What does this fold into?
Amino acid sequence: MPHVIVKVWPGKSDSQKRRLTDAIAASAADILGYGPDSVSIGIEEVPSGEWMTRVYAADIAAKWSSLAKQPGYGPGPAPSAPGEN
It folds into this structure.
């Protein structure tokens, strides 16, 4: 029963969001072997000026090692101090 949250900058059309939602739902159901009614998807618009604090720091850099796909932008996670892990 996957739930996917997609965070994007504002400005994408309803059509683009619907196409993305349909593609993610169909792929998740097919690949994971769930029925289409088992997949839920949320789209959250985050203004570009808030992206680095609301999304990058909290959801990307802080969870770097567990990301299924890491982005090609940003500094990556802060290095751990000796003895931290």
Summary: The chain has one domain: 3-65.
